[in-house]
Amino acid sequence: MKYTVDIAQPNFDKNGFATQSGWLQIYQYAYDATGEYTGTTYEYVIKDMGLSAGSTLAAPIIPADDKAIVRSEDSKTWEYPADHRGKPIFNAETQAALIVDYIGEIKAGFTLIELKTPFDKWDGKKWVTDKKAQKEQAVRLAESQKKALISEAETEITLLERKSRLAMASDEEKAIVNAWEIYSVQLSEVNTETAPNINWPEKPQ
């Protein structure tokens, strides 16, 4: 035919070389790295030349969001491995959190399951909270808080009593000394073994 309105599209011989020049839609992948699909474009193929490296005429299937598109090692097919990139994972031994930056299943020793407490331990399938360690920590924190509050109260009482003795205390300050003393006694009676469920006495205002 003398004329044509079609764009010439090359065919390829058994060795992968174009039998004529023309435009083709190609599908590209990171051939020198992960093999991940990077997109599609049009390429002008010159006669007796092949496709550019990292490209194929085979269109991949668009998978679910938790899958990646990767060219097989022999570059003959598309594969669809798991893709958890950007998700947090947790070290089963140390509990340390990392962000997945690789394609494929989660590496051994890590899990996508999030910890519920800092006292969780991995049993091979799920996190199990070490209730004893959790309780001991709560008691230690409560005991530390109790000591700090009592110290604060005693400091206030000492200062107010000194001001009263030196006739430097206002009527309001004289009246509140008793409230601080009651507060200090209430603190001393707090049972930290009930932590974290403790009703702390209200501090005088």
From TrEMBL:
A matching Pfam family: Caudo_TAP
Protein name: Tail fiber assembly protein from lambdoid prophage e14
Domain of life, per lineage: Bacteria
The organism of origin for this protein: Arsenophonus endosymbiont of Trialeurodes vaporariorum
InterPro entries: Phage_T4_Gp38_tail_assem (IPR003458), TFA_Chaperone (IPR051220)
